[in-house]
Amino acid sequence: MLPRLARAHRRVLLPTPRALSTATVSAPAPLSAAELEALLRRDHYSAATRRFHSILPLLSHPSLLLASALLLRRRSHPSAPPPEPPPLPTTTAAAAAPPSPSSHLRLIIPSRLKGRPLPLPTLPLRLAMLSAASALDAVFAPRAATFAYRARHAAIRYLRSIPNATWFFRVAIPRQPFGPRHVRHLLDAISCKVDDPGFLDYLRELFLSDAIAFELGGSELSRGLPQESELTGVLLNIFFDPVDREMMAIREEVHKKNPRVKDESVLHTPVRVYAVRYLDEMMVATTGSKMLTLEVRDRILTVLEKGLGVKVDRFGSSVHSAVSEKMEFLGMEFQAVPPSVLHPPMSEKAKRARKMYLKRKAAEAQELKNARETRRKKLGLKILNHLFKKVRRGHEFEFDFSIEDEVQQEFKGWAEEIVVEYFKSQNHCRYWHRLFTSGDFLSLNRVRDQLPPALVDSYDQLQEALNKFLMPRRGYDMTEDVERLEEEEDERQYEKRTVEDLTELKMRVNAPIELVRKAVKLAGFTNSMGRPRPIKLLLCLDDADIIKWYAGVGRRWLDFFCCCRNFKMVKIVVSYHLRFSCFLTLAEKHECTKRQAISHYTKDLKVTNEDGVPEVYFPTEREIKMMGDKNLSDPKPVDGALTMILVRLAVDETSHPCLAHFCAGTDTTLYRIRLLQNRLNVDPLNEKKWVQGLSAIHESLNKKCLPLCSMHASDLLLGKITLQDIDCTQFVDVV
Fold first, then answer.
1. 189, 488, 623, 634: least surrounded by Cβ within 10 Å?
2. Are strands 327-329 and 332-337 parallel, antiparallel or unpaired?
3. Residue 236 C-alpha from the chain's centroid
């Protein structure tokens, strides 16, 4: 396809900037997703044919192009205030007509002689492709399956909620290019809803010119890599729609044959089929028999092989037991386990520790309460002492209002509270009961006979009151009741937990910690013994940039694996291996010891900015400890940040503008891209030497130079933006 790029001709001539500067164009308003869908339904839909038409002219709509430009600017300016409309000449230049794919591509030649060039679209073509993606999404999204997710973490959270899974399988698609036969199936699916030959020819030309080029079964999709197109996700959802329809038909058949029992007294687990698809990855789980799961798998693979022409690895798509085996899907490991594995009961040691903690907290609360009472008593004594001195000196106090009742009620309330709190203590009751009842001569019969009956009766009433309020036996009975209630509650919880373990299964999600450790070792964070080591390629960067690069890799890992059960293991990798590798790199740069680097930067890796204000980019130990499954965003994987290092060039060149989309910064710094696979001379497709599931940036971008302003350089190092948010067609050639 690449030779066609050199022979291609320009379809549309775009207006020159000079012509744009003289034209008067009214500022358009960007279209939202709902407005675009309403526009398509109103002006581009035929009720007779039930298809949409005139989609190609819609790609040149100024409002749609402006919405696409705003989306690009919003993604490339995460640290900036809310986006403003991009410069009007840019959007108008793209709005003249949909740009020809072949004439708006730039070939990036790799530094390696045997390397393959990478065609990248220019900014006008990217805007047109984003507009096409928005239009297709508005057409096909309303009829998409509910289990066809567009966010990786949303799919993982749904899988985690699947109950009582017994068998599952993953549709294993070997690595294969999205070739002409797949393009034909895709365009046929689009033509069922879109009656626009020009738009279909435009999509076909995008594939022929390699403006859209990807592989099925690979690991480069939706990872923020520059070789990925904005149209890929939408086109894949349309391409796999027949598989989704077949899956929906299977689920409907199973649900009709196995209705749910409405009697709550009967323990019944209905047979269900659950499916999740994210781009070209699909996983199916069932609560039925293995034969049912095999039947579902065969029907899905038949649609893929015969209906869509996709090669499928049947051995890799084998059915596995959800209880005894693990399934790798979306970069994580899934397994069905009893509920007690996810929420284990507290051990005896943990119970004792919790009791000690509660006892310590109660003691601290009592100390605070005693301190408040002491301060209150001292304040009252000061007030009374002051009033007494005034009275002795002959002063008279005159008030326009009476406060005796209020003061009396306040002191009465304080006294009652103190008495109630005092007698809540069993030790105090036991002490006073012993004082009032021991050694009293009125308890002797020979003495009682000689005394008046009224005095004896008063003494007996006093003893009854003492036994009623201060008898130690009452405290012991209350303690025994509390202990008995606690034992009964523990027995009920144990019974409930045992029944759940015997009747329920829940999906556990784990991070592939061995692959994470292998990636840490491959990137050079640790040595062969697994201990942190410095990365000498980072020594040419500023201290802040070094810390930002480590922080970008660490935060990407923490955000991606935050929903995993063994998230604690990932925290250890970031908090120990990455943090101390950063310390060793800084120590290597400044020729000092690790202890001196820790003393200077502190354990939080604080660094001062240009204004002398200390800033923290690397997640602190407390922040890492508090992280959990509360982040509902869909973060990008760590691949792009881990496999790329930006090396700052010692060149005083300020004439180049920043290459981030719609950035007007001119105070830039040149950085050279160094890719991990080129530094190690390793083929990313070789799983023995590379990390399984770890994608890589295209090798043609290795050693390319790009000018960036300080804000976008910081965002790229911190992982807030990717190379997709940078105009990679405008790289600077520096020898």
1. 488
2. antiparallel
3. 24
Q: Whole-angstrom Cα distance, residue 545 to residue 585?
A: 12
Residue at 187: amino acid letter:
L
Q: Which of 130, 145, 45, 127 is CA-nearest to residue 86? A: 127
Instruction: Tell me the C-alpha to C-alpha distance, in Å, between residue 13 and each of 90, 100, 206, 609, 698.
Output: 15, 9, 18, 47, 31
Q: Residue 244 in contact with residue 129, Cβ under 8 Å?
A: no
Helix H or strand E segment including 715 = helix 710-718
Distance CA 650, CA 671 (A): 9
Q: What is the pLDDT of residue 487?
A: 82
CA neighbor of 514 nearest in space, from 535, 531, 533, 530: 530
Cβ atoms of 198 and 56 within 8 Å: the answer is yes
CA 297 to chain centre: 31
Nearest to 49 by CA among 234, 177, 196: 196
Look at residue 139 in the predicted model and tell me its pLDDT: 92
Give residues with Cβ within 8 angstroms of 169, minimum separation 6: 283, 284, 293, 297, 317, 318, 319, 320, 327
Rg for the chain, CA atoms, rounded: 37
Give the model's pLDDT for residue 23: 38
How many Å separate Cα 656 from the centre of its chain? 36
Three-class SS of residue 108? strand
Six token digits for residue 185: 């199936």
Cα(492)–Cα(498) distance, rounded to whole angstroms? Answer: 10
568 in helix, strand or coil?
helix
Shortest CA distance to 310 belongs to which of 165, 493, 174, 504? 174
> Residue 177: which H helix or E strand, with range?
strand 176-177
CA distances from 357 to 71, 350, 351, 391, 427 (A): 51, 10, 10, 51, 22
Main-chain dihedrals φ then ψ at residue 56, nearest 5 degrees = -60, -45
Residue of 557, 696, 546, 523 lying closest to 636 (CA atoms): 557
The secondary structure element, H or E, covering residue 716 is helix 710-718
Q: What are the counts of helices (DSSP H) followed by strands (DSSP E) for the chain? A: 29, 20
Q: What angle do CA 691, 78, 619 make, to 5 degrees?
A: 55
- Return the pLDDT at 221: 86
What lies within 8 Å, CB to CB, of 234 at 6+ separation is 133, 136, 137, 140
> Which residue ranges in the chain fall short of pLDDT 50?
1-25, 88-95, 474-476
CA distances from 461 to 352, 428, 458 (A): 44, 21, 5
Q: Which two tokens stand for residue 465?
A: 């009151």
Q: What is the pTM of this model?
A: 0.79
The residues pairing with 465 across neighbouring beta strands, listed in sequence order, are: none
Q: How far apart are CA 342 and CA 335, in angstroms?
A: 11
Chain centre distance of CA 550? 18
Q: At what angle do helices 88-95 and 123-140 cross, to 10 degrees?
A: 70
> What pLDDT score does 653 carry?
61
Torsion sign over Cα 278, 284, 285, 286: positive
- CA-CA distance, 593 to 599, in Å (whole number)? 10
Please answer whether residues 211 and 235 qualify as being in contact, where contact means their C-beta atoms are separated by less than 8 angstroms. Answer: no
Distance (Å) of CA 223 to CA 230, 330, 480, 659, 697: 12, 12, 61, 20, 10
User: Position 727: which residue type?
Assistant: D
Dump strand ranges (E) for 555-650: 606-608, 614-616, 644-648
- H/E run at residue 510: strand 506-510
Burial degree of 465 (CB within 10 A; 0-12, 13-18, 19+): exposed
pLDDT at 600: 92
